Amino acid sequence: MKVGYLHIGEPEHGIARYGRYLATEAKSRSELSVIEAEVVLTGEKTVDRQNLLTAAATLSQADLIHFQHNSHIWGGKQQLQNLKTFLNACTSPKIATLHDLFYPPHSSLMLQQIVQGKRSVAELPTWLKTIAREQLSPNFRALRQILDRTPFIFVCTEEESKRLDQYTVPNRIKTIPHFVESRTLSITPEAARQRLNLNEKIVITLLGFIYRGKGHDLLVKALAKLPSNYEVVFAGGLGHKEFLHNVINLAKTLGVVDRVRVTGYLSEADQELYLAATHLAVCPFEKTSASGSLCTWISANKPILAFDLPQIAEYNRLQPDAISTFSPYTPETLAEAIQQTLSQPQDNHAIVQLHRQLEMPVVFDRHLDHYTTLLEQ
Predict the structure, then answer these.
(1) In 3D, which of 240, 196, 341 has the Cα closest to residue 282?
(2) How far is CA 243 from the centre of its chain?
(3) Which is the most buried residue in 119, 186, 234, 240, by most CB within 10 A?
(4) CB neighbour class for 347 (10 Å; exposed up to 12, middle 13-18, buried from 19)
(5) In angstroms, rounded to a whole number, what is the distance separating the alpha carbons of residues 212 and 365?
(6) CA–CA distance, 331 with 327 (Å, rounded to integer)
(7) Helix axis angle, 216-223 relative to 331-343, nearest 10°?
C-alpha cells in the first residue's frame, strides 16, 4: 500500500507535527510505502495555489492521501479556496483528520428543540442566523467541502464526534485517540530545575502556544492564591500577542508577575528541561478538541491537572484516575486543586498505563485498519 501524507502549516505547529509523526510511523511498516508533500501557506494566492497543485500532483501517485485540517493551517479566510485547489487536483482517495472542532448546534437540531419546547420560540431569530452561518461561514463551507470529498473522516475524541453528528452520518466519523509519542527524559527534575534557576520552587507549567481559552489568565488568578514559592511557567510560542499582554498586566495587578515565566517557542532540548523541571502540569482549557500539549505531558509521565471536560473524562475512562480534574472553572477551585494534587503521593502508574494504550504503534494500527478498509471498497 502506498500512502500519501500532506504536511500543511508551519513546521512547528502541533497539527503539522501530528501528520509528520504519522508518516514517520508509516515508514517503519514494511507493508507500506510513503509519499510526503509539504506546504506552508504564504497568503499569496498565486504562490499558494501553485504549491498546493504541486503537492497534489506528488501525492496523487499514492493509493490514498491523508491530510490534517483546521482553519488556521489551511489559511483562515482563504481555507475554502485552498481546500478546493488541493482536493480538485488530487486523483487518489482522500482521508482527513479534523482538529479543533467547535461547531454550534446544527440548525435542524435547533428547530427540532424549538418544536419540542426545549427551546423558546423567541430563539427563532437565532435559528435563522444559524442557517445563514451554515451557508456562508468559511468554517462550515470548508467542513462541507471535506465531507463531500472524503469517504470518512478521523477525529480524536468522542466529544468531537458528537459535535459532527448533525453534519454527517455517524458511520462516516472514525474516532482514533491522539497518539502519545515515546519519550525518555534524560535529566532529573532536580538537575533541570538547577539549570533553569528554579531551585526551591514548586513549578506549575502550562504547555503549548499561548491562545485565548487555554486558561493562562485563570492560572495567573490561581497563582495569586498560592504560596510564594509556587512559580508558573508558560512554556510555548506566542499565539495571541494581545492576549499575552493582557495576562501579563493581570499578573502585575495581582502582584505575581515575578512568579510567571514566559519561555517563548522552545526547542526540543529546552522543552525537555521544562518537562523534567515541572512538578505539576496544568491544562486549564475552557474547551478543547484534542490537545497535543496534554499528550506531551502523558509522554513525560508527569502528573496532570485539567478542567473537568468531556475529553478529559474519555482519558480517565481508558485509564481510571490518570488525570486529576477540577471544577467549577474558578481560580479558587484551581488553586485548591493544585495544592491538593501536589500533596498526594506521586504515583505515576496510571499515567504510565494510559501512555501504553496511546503509544504511536497502537494508534497507527487503527489508522491502518481504516486505510485498508477504504482500499478494499
Answers:
(1) 341
(2) 19
(3) 234
(4) exposed
(5) 34
(6) 10
(7) 70
- Grid cell locating 59: 501525492
Give the span between the Cα atoms of 308 and 147, in whole angstroms: 30
310 Cβ contact list (under 8 Å, min separation 6): 157, 158, 159
Cβ atoms of 262 and 208 within 8 Å: the answer is no
> Taking a C-beta distance cutoff of 8 angstroms, is the pair 292, 97 a contact?
no
DSSP state for residue 105 in the 8-state scheme: P
In DSSP terms, 225 is beta-bridged to none
Q: What distances in angstroms separate CA 89 from CA 43, 76, 85, 156, one per listed residue?
A: 20, 20, 6, 27
What are residue 68's phi and psi, to 5 degrees? -105, 150
Cell numbers found for residue 63: 493509493
CB under 8 Å to 192, separation ≥6 — which residues?
Answer: 198, 273, 274, 276, 277
DSSP 211: -
C-alpha–C-alpha distance, residues 362 and 262, integer Å: 35
H helix runs in 60-209, sequence order: 79-89, 107-115, 124-136, 138-149, 158-163, 189-195
Neighbours of 21 (CB within 10 A): 15
Amino acid, single-letter form, for residue 134:
E
Q: At 297, which helix (H) or strand (E)?
A: helix 292-299
The pTM is what?
0.80
CB burial string 348-360: b at 16+ within 10 A, e below: eeebeebbeebeb
Residue 159: predicted pLDDT: 86
Do the beta carbons of residue 312 and residue 306 sit within 8 Å? Answer: yes
Structure confidence by residue, pLDDT tens digits, 101-154 = 755 555 455 555 566 666 665 666 665 665 555 555 677 888 889 999 999 999
Top-confidence residue, 226 or 290? 226
The string of pLDDT tens digits covering residues 161-170 is: 888 877 787 7
- Alpha-helical regions (H) of 255-282: 268-277
Using CB atoms within 10 A of its CB, is residue 346 exposed (0-12), middle (13-18) or buried (19+)? exposed
Up-side HSE of residue 83: CA atoms within 13 Å toward CB?
30
